[in-house]
Amino acid sequence: MKTIRTLVSVLVVSGLLAIAPAAPAAAQDQDFVTVVKIAGINWFNRMEEGVVDWGEESGVNATLVGPAEADAAQQIPIIEDLIASGVDALCVVPMDVTQLEPVLQKAMEAGITVVTHEASSQVNMDYDIEAFDHMAYGAGLMDRLAAEMGDEGEFAVFEGCLGSKTQHEWVDGGNARQMEADPVMTMLGETNASFDESEIAYQKPKEILAAYPIIKGIQGSASTDVAGIGGAVEEAGLQDEVAVVGTSLPSIAGDLLTSGAIDAIGFWDPAVAGAACNQIAMMTLAGEEVGEGTDLGIEGYNSLIADGNVLYGDAAVYVDASNADEYPF
Hints:
The protein is built from twelve helices and 14 strands.
């Protein structure tokens, strides 16, 4: 597995990235904490690898924490405690942007640098970093779902949390593409919420498959959605009849990609995103300019696009059974 440290080392050796031999003393005394939606799932375990490796390379004490359940109300006391402890920077992946506004405002008032991820509508932050334009990414997922469905039929859509700005943009981007390119496709009802719970992401599709036997596709948004949906489709023996596409990781999709129960997944490497988030925090604390064209020295984030203080990289990845093994995480 290529860690962020390995990537940085390769760039240094090749002369593509210059890093001082030792981190400044000030950086060595800094504490950066990344607060994620939920601890212990593959997506954020992978992000933790990137955060820790970045910290070791940068000389910053960089750690990652998250609540036991995907609940914005449980993120708030974690952030409150970190404010009280006097951390230098927070990188936050909000479960719900609106609910976290007051506590992030408190963090900024305390002089803490705040960088968010998956939260382009967040108000109280210094910068938000996104892996890509989310509407375009959602359109990319829809292109793959439509191709698997033969450009016709009914499909259902899942989001981990209906308060997630980025996941909602993926759905909106996909729906806009579908209406433009495949008007004979029809979305069934409203968007379904899995609440980032793998059991719900498995049980709800089972109900949908039973209620709508003519359904031809299901799209998931949370990293655990697609595995649950794929499991339900495979259990019903419908892997050749119902297309499953969405955001996940190869390690989460697993054998369901090989069996055809999951047709394609899209993602960005959370380890690299975690490094990018912390890199922006460090640059901000150092008084460096971050904006249009900024190169973070991190793959996929070499020429940022800026919309105010919302920054976009170009780090989208789409895989299927033919190339999933190229991304062993």
